Amino acid sequence: MEPNNLNKEQDKNSWVLKACTLLSKIRDQSPLIQCITNFVSMDLMANTLLSAGASPAMIHSIEEIQDFTPNIHALCINVGTLSPAWLPAMREAAQVATKAGKPWVLDPVAAGASGFRLNACLELVGLKPSVIRGNGSEIIALSKASIGASKGVDSSHESMGAMEAAKSLAQSSGAIVAVSGAVDIITDGHRIVGAYNGVPMMQKITATGCAVTALIAGFVAVDPLHALEATASALSIFGIAGEIGMDMANGPASLRMHLIDSLYNLDQAAVSSRLKITGL
């Protein structure tokens, strides 16, 4: 085997080991993941976490934050159906999680679509999330702190086109930044990796992006000191479940079902044969 190919094989084996170890930890530890999320995504996010082995809690009332949030293992905040009434709970949960030393993940849905939404997302970024996961347009909007062309919650930019924005945002925020797309980009502002798993039809199922953000929170919960590796592993694992589900699906509705089943049944052999994560 050529040296370059040997290095690639060793790198792949290392990522397979990381991903499988983290998935095994989730299944063994069943971390409690609090999700303050949108009305569209609650069901799929909860089922994604459950099928991976985590314990979801869709608690968003500000009256419960002080009692509940210190006991979680990770927090996921998603601004999809944002309203002024929800912002104080998001803000307080992020602050309580940080104070308690618990990681939290931000999904800045349609961040550049309006001034209200952008300002809310920028305020949350200032509360030091461990990971920020969005599409290309969302990450560019946060990086530039400006409203931009978008198609609602859909991206107008490919993930690769948002790489420099992701690096800049990671450096300014201190968070791991992940950009979802045909290739998922993950960066700490210096190191960059790409995850290549998944199928296009996953984009035809509402809340798959939200669901993978919740899964990232689950992975980071069991390895908070290696958030980049946890984030890349979660994105790849979710993509692999989509690939396996696609082999049995007839369309988006059946893919949704098979995606959840495939994540639940995922084993090391499937991860080893399908995982595609490389340095960029």
Topology:
Layout: H1 3-29, E1 32-36, H2 42-52, E2 55-57, H3 62-68, E3 74-78, H4 87-99, E4 104-107, H5 115-125, E5 131-135, H6 136-144, H7 163-173, E6 176-180, E7 184-187, E8 192-195, H8 208-222, H9 227-246, H10 252-265, H11 268-274, E9 277-279
Parallel strand pairs: 1-2, 1-3, 3-4, 4-5, 5-6
Antiparallel strand pairs: 6-7, 7-8, 8-9
Helix pairs in contact: 1-8, 1-9, 2-8, 2-10, 3-4, 6-7, 8-9, 9-10
Notes on the structure:
The protein has 280 residues and is of the alpha/beta class. The protein has a single domain, classed as Ribokinase (UDP-N-acetylmuramoyl-L-alanine:D-glutamate ligase). It contains 11 helices and 9 strands. The protein has helices spanning 3-29, 42-52, 62-68, 87-99, 115-125, 136-144, 163-173, 208-222, 227-246, 252-265, 268-274, and strands spanning 32-36, 55-57, 74-78, 104-107, 131-135, 176-180, 184-187, 192-195, 277-279. β6 and β7 form a beta hairpin. α1 crosses α9 (227-246) and α2 (42-52) packs parallel to α8 (208-222). The longest helix has 27 residues, at 3-29. The model is unreliable at 151-156 (pLDDT under 50).
